[in-house]
Amino acid sequence: MKNVSFLLILLATTAIVSCKKKGCTDETATNYSEEAKKDDGSCTYPELSIPSTYSFTDASGNSTVSYGGQADRLNQLEEMTTYMKSGTTTALDAGILNAMFENTDDNASGNFTFSSSKQLKNKCFATDVALFEGYLTALATASIDFAEEAASGQAGTLSSGSSTYLFGANGMEYVQLVEKGLMGAVFLNQATNVYFGSSKMDVDNSTAVSTGEGKFYTEMEHHWDEAFGYFGAPIDFPTNTDGLRFWAKYYNNQSADLSPSLVITNSFLKGRAVISQGFDLTIRDEQILNIRKEWERLSAAQAVTYLEGAVENFGTDNAKFLHELSEAYAFILCLKYVPLETRVINFTEIESLLETTIGNDFWAVTLTDLNSAITTLNSIYGF
Predict the structure, then answer these.
(1) Portion of the chain with pLDDT greater than 90, in percent
(2) How far apart are CA 263 and CA 317, in angstroms?
(3) Contact at 8 Å (CB) between 63 and 216?
(4) What would the pLDDT profile of 85-121 be if each residue is shown by its tens digit?
(5) Nearest Cα to Cα of residue 337 among 228, 226, 189
(6) According to the model, what pLDDT value does residue 18 have?
(7) Helix (H, G, I), strand (E, B), or coil: what is residue 377?
(8) How far apart, in whole angstroms, are the C-alpha atoms of residue 125 and residue 381?
(9) Quick one: pLDDT band at residue 319, thresholds 50, 70, 90?
(10) Long-range contact pairs involving 3-8 (C-beta distance under 8 Å, separation at least 24)
């Protein structure tokens, strides 16, 4: 993204002392311990230790990190996307697409390469389930004409260099609307609304769920991990960038301009350390706020990046133009799923961008429309 400047959120990445310091004999203090008492009766207080990787253990060295369900859903969307992209050379089966969305029979009716009880559909933003089912139907319908050249009113494919894309008659690339849209309606929504919500955060943080079953984490630790799992970063990001998926991949691409201090990554680490080490939970809540705000800015920044790409290809390369516009549309759609209490853009502004400025016929979008959308997002987010 070009010419982007930000007011960065300041993060303390060094040791932090708990705000509650009433004395070594005050057992209500969040960092109370007999070991803190000195011989002269004065106190020392433990400092918050933030690891450089997302690795946390209990006192016995057992890992307390677990987010297997989130990894399953990321895998499901990856395999679903692979199948959707095959629509450039073959007609897609709407039944298979829906089986992947709801994970029928725990393996998408045999179309996933693995088995899991998890699914995307039941974790999707509830009021938009029908929207994505409609996209899947439209994708299957468009793929019937994969051998046709896409044009206004005609579904089909267009190529740019070595890349070929499938478009509906309205110029929408439904693969992008589904993939990027579900990144918001499932991954972003579940992480920032559900797992960072009070019902998941105001829970036990003193007892392991079940050590006999290898669940050495507390409820609160587990819920924080599940939010992290939806981000799609390896535990050693940013040192390791090979395993980046979905949101983490785009965050890495945007980090130089958007977040050179890696606010999301560091806040995930800091918040988990606060939970695991028993520090004041107001510090944890500050990290939740940081992550919510920066994740929203990531989606908006990515939308602007793709809108600028659409401008660059307007009138010269329809394949790239429609592809970039479809991705931009999807990332604007993702802004709907940011928690209402922290969201910068309001619902009316989102709907205006999607339904009025861009609209549902991409062949009819003008340079004026594209630049208007860019100006709007830049103004709202201060890019």
Answers:
(1) 85
(2) 36
(3) yes
(4) 999 999 999 999 999 999 999 999 999 999 999 999 9
(5) 189
(6) 37
(7) helix
(8) 24
(9) very high
(10) 3/383, 4/257, 4/258, 4/301, 4/304, 4/383, 5/382, 5/383, 6/257, 6/258, 6/259, 6/297, 6/382, 6/383, 7/382, 8/259, 8/260, 8/261, 8/263
Taking only the tens place, the pLDDT of each residue in 247-287 is 999 999 988 788 777 999 999 999 999 999 999 999 999 99
For residue 36, what pLDDT band results from cuts at 50, 70 and 90? very low
What pTM does this model have? 0.88
Map tokens 């039944």 to a residue: 95
Structure tokens at 144: 């019937």
Q: Cβ(175)–Cβ(84) under 8 Å?
A: yes
First-residue to last-residue Cα distance in the chain: 10
Burial class (CB in 10 A: 0-12, 13-18, 19+), 62: middle
Buried b (16+ CB within 10 A) or exposed e, 298-321: bbbbbbbbbbbbbbebbeebbbbb
Question: Residues 277, 280, 281, CA angle at the centre, nearest 5°?
Answer: 95
Structure tokens that stand for 215 in this block: 């669940």
Q: Which of 143, 126, 22 is CA-nearest to residue 83?
A: 143
Per-residue tokens: 364: 């009819």
pLDDT of residue 47: 87
What local confidence, expressed as pLDDT, does residue 257 receive?
A: 82
Residues with Cβ within 8 Å of 2's Cβ and at least 6 positions away in sequence, in order, are 308
* Alpha-carbon torsion (317, 323, 327, 329), positive or negative: positive
Rounded Cα distance, 57 and 235, in Å: 14
Q: What is the dihedral of CA 187, 191, 197, 202, to 10 degrees?
A: 140
Q: Do residues 227 and 290 make contact, with C-beta atoms less than 8 angstroms apart?
A: no
DSSP class of residue 150?
P
DSSP 98-162: HHHHHTGGGTTTTTSSS--S--SGGGS-GGGHHHHHHHHHHHHHHHTTTTSBPBTTB-EEEEETT
Pick from 128, 78, 79, 174: nearest CA to 335: 128
Q: Is the pLDDT of residue 19 over 90?
A: no
The position carrying tokens 């003193």 is: 206
Q: Are 353 and 373 in contact (CB under 8 A)?
A: yes
Contact between 49 and 273 (Cβ < 8 Å) = yes
Instruction: List residues bridging with 160 in a β-sheet.
Output: 163
Two tokens, residue 248:
């983490």
